[in-house]
Amino acid sequence: MNSPIISISNLSKRYRIGPDRMTMGEMMRGIKRAVAYRLGLGLKKTSGDFIWALRDVSLDIAEGERVGIIGRNGAGKSTLLKVLSRVTYPTSGEARIYGRVTSLLEVGTGFSDDLTGRENIFLNAALYGLSRKQIEARLDDIINFSEIRRFIDTPIKHYSSGMRMRLAFSVAAHLDPDVLMLDEVLAVGDLSFQKKCLERMGELTSHGRTLLFVSHDLQAVIRFCNRCVWLEQGQVIADGPVEEVTSTYLERYAGLKSEFISAAPPFQTPDARPSGRSDADRTPVTEEPADTVGEQKHLVTTTPVRLIAARVIDQNRNTTNSVRVDSSLGIEITFEVLENGANIEPAIHVKTTKEMAFAAAYISDDYPKGVEAAGRYMSTVWIPPNFLNVGLYWINIVLGTPDPLIRHVFQEDVLSFNVYETIDLAGTSRGRYARQFPGPVRPLLHWETEAAPSKPNPAAQIFPQ
Amino acid sequence: MSQTMSLSYASGDAGWNVAPQVAHETVIMPRQEIIIRPVAGLNWSNLKSVLSHGELLYSMTKRQLKAEYSNMYFGFAWILARPLAMMLVFWMFKQLSAARTGVEIPYPTYLYSGLIFWFFFAESVIEGSSSLERDSGLVRKVYFPRLISVLVPICANLFALAVSAVPLVLLMIYFQLAPGWHILLLPFVLAQTAFLTLGIACLFSVLTLLSRDWNRFLQLALYAGLFVSPVIYLPEMVPAAVRWLYFANPLAGILLAFRATLFADIAFPWIPWMYSVGVSLLVLVAGIVLFSRYERELLDRI
Question: What global pTM score does this model have?
Fold first, then answer.
């Protein structure tokens, strides 16, 4: 395996928030504080309000990887790119890049209105560290790529914004960097030029160039990148194949359902608050046949059990929607048995995006024949660590009686969660394989290998080669 | 057998954390390692990379000159306007007041040579010290050695100095003044001036980012400096008792040396010049050390 081309370890960046310049009083206090700190008088060195734009970010990016960085506004995406571009410096941690970097944090950085297109090419390319000779060697390609040869000796103040963009990207596309960093720059330009840029990007990356791409456009990230890093509040919260991370991201902001609470009012619960009663005539959201939904009385008499709530929990019983592959996760189901002697058992179906993974029946010594007495119950089923594959899972919840099978409640996609793993995670069922594993489960199984006895194999005698 | 099977399984598709094996047909530049660390101490690699950015310095200087002088009928001729106008004013004062300046060469040449030198120094320092803020659009978006940003105004003003030397040559021909062998020292004097200028500009570009007070202070100091330095008169006008204080100003020595290289009639001021070379080098080192130490920290404030 190659050593990474970009290696980031515990990178943090802190910004001070508040007024731009210190007041005189603050400055004096700051000086006093600094002096006191030097003299060891026990005062803290720093003061004021800070915001961590990046916090302990560690990533290894191999050569040729195309990494998309996603996250909401203020998640630290651009800060990460800025630090890697050396436009700003980290507060702690370290990053190493082996090779030449070109970063386009903005279209047309350093363009000067008074210079012609040609002169701006020289200025821009020089800004990215090219020598005159190298620029001259690329000049024709750059001009051809930009498709604005006619205007190349016109001062660019007369250019349209699209023409500027073309010129800027043309320069950037011909710098031949080892690492190309782009921040939301492809959003501009007409479609045909965008397509050309994408082709060029593909060309660059297929030649082993490494790409770092920050965007809000998840589709663009999916298209250009094979790996995706999701930042939230300056921290990496997901890192993996682009489809996985982006679908989780989409789920999150489309509402990944780590918790379910029934919209129906609790029936026949003595501790229900009076205010809850006023909702009694609201249609309950259950998966009952449509003809029973309308009438409350009918519903009550035909369903001996109701699903009250459900959630995905981690080992510490905290609600979660992302579980690391090497930790166990629980599905906690709260239900209310309305009739005595119904022998209710909960069960779950676990599904991936594509397929049904497995169903888990109720096996418990506490209630070996299901729940008989009416009342409210909470069951938790634990999925062991290193069992599920990484990716998104959906949960169906069944509340039923096994024999004869009656599904009193069958609710689909009640919950969903993401199972993820990070690159540095050791001792998982991935072994030493790098690729994505197929299938819904990826259990950690026990292997035994020993030197085989030198006795002749009877099978070999029967079927000689 | 089982091993080959597992291998084919592993290479079934391009794993996302394994680099695909890519053959490099052409390596255009040798790979160098960039290490990004928190601000601590000096950044020598950053300073060294200034040397490899000659084309950038050239392009940015060109950009500045074009921005300043394009779209004008007179263009670079405007460079001459200020020193010529001021020369006329001071010369008129001298004629009207019959003041004795003690200058051994025709006064207009003395004045003009002093003024173009002074403007070179003052403009470079003012522009250099605010260059980081002026180039903030660039500095925030792309990495390049920031020292380039401070060097650009100095180069642009060196060009302006070269342009303003044309009338000086005409004046010298008119007054039949010739340089002596000391003209050979002119490059050293200019280099020393550039060093001093760079040092001061570096110091003040850091200070200006801390507080704009320093910008005002610098402007005031340069304005006063025009009269405190031997630009329009000879240092002999200063009482001998405080002349040592007068020569504490490193520009006094440079100005005298500058003129001595141009005019054979003026003796070369070895001792004040050596002193001012020393000060220039000190300021240069201090400026660059401070600049490269704090430039990174201050970038976030721009």
Answer: 0.65
